Amino acid sequence: MKQTPQQNQSEPVATEVDQLREMLSRDQSKRARRLLKTMHPAKIASLLERLTPQQRVDALHQLDARTEPKVLSYLSTALRTQLAYDLDADMTQPKNGASPTDGRVDEEPETQLRLVLDALDQGKLKRIARLFHTLHPARIAGLLESLPATERARVWDMVEGERTAKVLRHLHEEVRRRLAAEMDLEHLIEAARGLEPDDLVDLIQDLPTATGRQILDAMDQRERERLQSMLSYPENTAGGLMNMDQVEVRSNIKVGTLLRYLRLREELPPNTDKLFVIDRKHRYQGILRTERVLTARPETSVSDLMETDFEPVPADQKSDAVAQRFEQEDLNSAPVIDAEGRLLGRITIDDVVDVIREQSAHALLGMAGLDEETDMFAPVLASSRRRAVWLGINLITAFLAAWVIGLFEGTLQHVVALAVLMPIVASMGGIAGSQTLTLVIRGLATGQLGSGNTRILLLKEMGIGLLNGLLWALVVAALAIVWFGNWTIGGIIAVAILLNLLCAAASGVVIPLLMSRIGIDPALAGSVVLTTVTDIVGFFAFLGLATLILL
Amino acid sequence: MKQTPQQNQSEPVATEVDQLREMLSRDQSKRARRLLKTMHPAKIASLLERLTPQQRVDALHQLDARTEPKVLSYLSTALRTQLAYDLDADMTQPKNGASPTDGRVDEEPETQLRLVLDALDQGKLKRIARLFHTLHPARIAGLLESLPATERARVWDMVEGERTAKVLRHLHEEVRRRLAAEMDLEHLIEAARGLEPDDLVDLIQDLPTATGRQILDAMDQRERERLQSMLSYPENTAGGLMNMDQVEVRSNIKVGTLLRYLRLREELPPNTDKLFVIDRKHRYQGILRTERVLTARPETSVSDLMETDFEPVPADQKSDAVAQRFEQEDLNSAPVIDAEGRLLGRITIDDVVDVIREQSAHALLGMAGLDEETDMFAPVLASSRRRAVWLGINLITAFLAAWVIGLFEGTLQHVVALAVLMPIVASMGGIAGSQTLTLVIRGLATGQLGSGNTRILLLKEMGIGLLNGLLWALVVAALAIVWFGNWTIGGIIAVAILLNLLCAAASGVVIPLLMSRIGIDPALAGSVVLTTVTDIVGFFAFLGLATLILL
After folding, report:
1. Residue B512 pLDDT class (50, 70, 90 cuts)
2. Which residue ranges run through the membrane (chains A, B) (predicted)?
């Protein structure tokens, strides 16, 4: 313990060079990486000078994207050039025939993932950095989400400083929170500055309150006030979705003046398909499409080109409703106003697309009791805990079904064929019911199902239940008669299936409607309740009838 | 039968007036509607003149949106004004306190639907026409989809001629096909002319071939050729999504010239956030953002402002991939090129949003064996037939499970408690497995799951299966022991649940991966196969162990 690198500063370099050499020769790239992480860039530079070219390249692979430029700045120009050349050669000739990165990146996500995993495996982390350099931040986010936690942290270090913000924006909530929590504050604030206000607001909402507070404090006053006003709206409203980068104009100016003003700005925010016309008190007056500006004569007045019948979005409108409007009216952007009609900001289609994706993930994953922001590679313990809840809920319903069966133990003992056939009755009911349920849940989500037409739908679904009930009752009865040679059992199962399919149709309509009326999301709990009903009705009808008739 | 309206032309009006009067006084608005449908507008006008004001208004309600203006043109100006006034009064004072349409339309879909249904009920169809007049075509489409077939046809007639095309575009495939099939060809062609090319292509693809052919023939040659080239790409590719309304520029012109050219055009197509730069041979060179045009000085050359690194979309790219790119890169529009690099058209975000919605509907409805284009109010017989297939598939799996149970009939006869508990084992496996399955299906859809990380995921899911298996095995065992007072059965069910949860985790990962490898959509068939496996394994493990130990 007498010569650990940190403690003895007199003759550290030699020892550390030896340590590093040994680690690199033994392919212990992770240990080398940890060692380098504790050192000052200048020290790393002096270490590098003492290594062989191959070791130098291997060591360089272990530097994260933020440290590397600092280390390079301490090296001589000649060594820097040499190193860049060596690194290049090292990357275009991978050791064991893995796919080479020859400038042009393969566009298949599968190949990219393979490349990242190979690079991790061989400790050639710079290959990942180079791949990332050519990829869109959203794709990088996708790759990060495809990795388990430890690998993800290593790869995350390879994202260049200025792009971390953009990658963060594209990550799912849970992954984002976890990666942000591991970043040091300075780095996080730097990333935060690179985000659009609406994305930054999302990030702050995902972080612990104290961290969010610190990020806010690091912003300048104007930006902070803006962020705070955006933070005051719930995440799932127009206010939570909006950005504040809109271009505002007054109605009394001419197109020529406007164009001069726009040229002075030099740049317009992305997705600017409309400018917003406001009055002296900053109240929303109408929209001015950029198309109109492009095609209008310079002497035209803005008031002649603007459209005053474009409905603005109230800041407290739910984001689902916003998404539906964008989708139905094919909008790219829309103004957001407060209760007094003042223009607050604008919502753009890219954020709406995210809302739509989240809705769909919510509907799909919710059916299995999963959260749409779930990290596919969350730690086993955390995942187990979350899923256990859903299994527990299901266990209650399973025991309810078992209890119903238990009521007829005596009957089952006499006619064991009933035990063999009873899952069929329950299962057919569950399938038929979930078809109806799914249709109704979608109808509720799209607003096509209201109090006016539920009766019609109920009748229609009961009709379908009747037809399919009759059909499959006959089929199952025939099969049961062939199997057990017992006509009575055939008759009993036929009646039970018909009853259960009718009940499934009714439950499929009624259960989600009741749930949404009392404020429970039917997409989440609907199918559990439904299958409980179809199980219980199925077992009860089948075993009950059998008890009446056979005993 | 001697004086039917069509046959006797000498003294028809008096009789028909009487017929109409009687129908209206008896509130038989549907019959009145059918009668009016057979008449020439001039005849209807002469009939109207002979009615009392209230009857006149009632009769007018029954005219469809295309006939009404023709009828009105035959009336005297005075009567026309009077009628407009009466109709207005009639609509603002609904008979039985239903929600009045006081100019400002209620924005709740629920209220709108109620209004339509009330209007249908009272035969005041013009109220629907007035409501539709203020609604976005997409909303009208939504309302149409909320109605059963007969009501839908009546309401459809109330859509004004010029808007039918836009409403058609927003309808789901099945509903669209049905409504279009009922329209007369002339009307359909008129509507087709109002559609954007990409939407028209969609419509033609949904119609019978002969009808599509007739629509194409009615277009002028240039339009027809354009449509035919678009029809040559499959619906689910970039070529099938694209439109041909892009603005093309050459790189050697100056911004000033470009602006003059744009002003000459007077109008730009919607969603024009980019112009496309092409060369002499119509090959794609790059994009020019309209933002850049707005902020650039007139003397700047297009070649200085254009971006050449914007990757165009190949026409044969799958629409899923296009949607993913739009989403990840926050695009509003993108150029589409053919194999030779020639610019064919462009894809805009509104069509991409439709793709995303369809994907999500497909994933959600597919799980229940439903088609995403399904009409919620399709006729009972048609719906029954489609759903029967899914029930039939499920029946096979249910019989497989029953067969496994049947193998252990002897055991069940000895220990009837097993029959009571066995559904619990199967059900827990099914729930746990579908959680894993759902995650994997999403991972495959987003491209986050590839051959590189499936092993990691499999291990993780097995870990979760082990933890939750142990937890719930203990819980269920304890409950079973309390219930039946039998420690052996408790032990058996614990082992069976643990085995089934491990098997569920493995199947949840492996089944969708195998399916997607052999080209079956796991979102459609995954859950059926999975629950078959968990049912069989669950019953087999539980009853098999019981047979070994208890007998």
Report:
1. very high
2. 388-408, 414-441, 462-485, 491-515, 527-550
Predicted pLDDT at A48: 84
pLDDT confidence of residue B286: 94
Nearest chain B residue (CA) to A400: B424
Sheet of strand A343-348, all strands in order from the earlier edge strand to the far edge: A313-314, A333-337, A343-348
Among the partner-chain residues B291, B365, B441, the one whose CB lies closest to the CB of A268 is: B291
ipTM: 0.81
Q: Please indicate whether, in this complex, the C-beta atoms of B428 and A376 are within 8 angstroms of each other.
A: no
Token duo for residue A58: 């291997």
Token pair in block for residue B501: 């949860």
Q: Edge to edge, what strands does the sheet with B313-314 contain?
A: B313-314, B333-337, B343-348
φ, ψ (nearest 5 deg) of residue B171: -80, 155
A211, A185 Cβ separation under 8 angstroms? yes
Residue of B196, B380, B396, B527 to mutate for A, most A C-beta atoms under 10 A: B380
pLDDT by residue (tens digit) across A350-372? 889 888 888 888 888 888 888 87
Sign for the CA dihedral angle at A321, A327, A329, A333 comes to positive
Contact yes or no for B175/B207 (Cβ under 8 A) = no
- Inform me whether the C-beta atom of residue A353 falls under 8 Å from chain B C-beta atoms: yes
CB contacts of B139 in chain A (<8 Å) are 328
Edge-to-edge strand ranges of the sheet holding A274-278:
A248-250, A274-278, A284-289
Which of A8-12, A193-197, A289-293, A357-361 is the least confident region?
Answer: A8-12
Closest CA to B140 of B125, B126, B160: B160
How is the beta sheet containing B284-289 ordered, strand by strand?
A: B248-250, B274-278, B284-289
Say if the Cβ atoms of B394 and A442 lie within 8 Å: no
d(CA A442, CA A446): 6
**Pick from A392, A390, A355: which is nearest to A372 by CA?**
A355
Nearest-Cα distance to chain A for B449, in Å, is 6
Q: Residue A334: what pLDDT?
A: 95
Exposed / middle / buried, residue A31 (Cβ in 10 Å: 0-12, 13-18, 19+): middle
Whether B9 and B15 have beta carbons less than 8 Å apart is answered as no
Residue A292 CA, chain-centre distance (Å), reads 37
More confident site: B4 or A455: A455
Q: What is the residue type of A362? A: H
**Closest residue of A to B449, CA-based?**
A146
Would you call B246 an interface residue with chain A, using a CB distance cutoff of 8 Å? Answer: no
In chain B, the residue whose alpha carbon lies closest to the alpha carbon of A532 is B427
What pLDDT score does B87 carry?
Answer: 77
How high is the mean pLDDT of chain B? 86
Q: Tokens representing B265?
A: 């055009």
pTM: 0.80
Q: What is the pLDDT of residues A423-450, one digit of tens each?
A: 999 999 999 999 999 999 988 888 888 8
Q: Which two tokens stand for residue A102?
A: 């020859």
Q: Which of A383, A390, A412 sits opposite B416 (nearest CB)?
A: A412
B365, B173 Cβ separation under 8 angstroms: no
Nearest to B169 by CA among A442, A328, A357: A328
Q: What is the pLDDT of residue A82?
A: 82
Residue in the structure block whose two tokens are 């949607």: B323
DSSP classification of residue A536: H
Does pLDDT of B297 surpass 60?
yes
Angstrom CA distances, B338 to A107, B345, B346, stand at: 18, 10, 12
pLDDT of amino acid A494: 97
| Closest-CA residue of chain B to A295 | B263
Alpha-carbon distance B44 to nearest alpha carbon in chain A (angstroms): 33
**How close is the nearest chain B Cα to the Cα of A216, in Å?**
26
How long is chain A? Answer: 551
Tell me, rounded to whole angstroms, the distance of Cα A182 from its chain centroid: 20
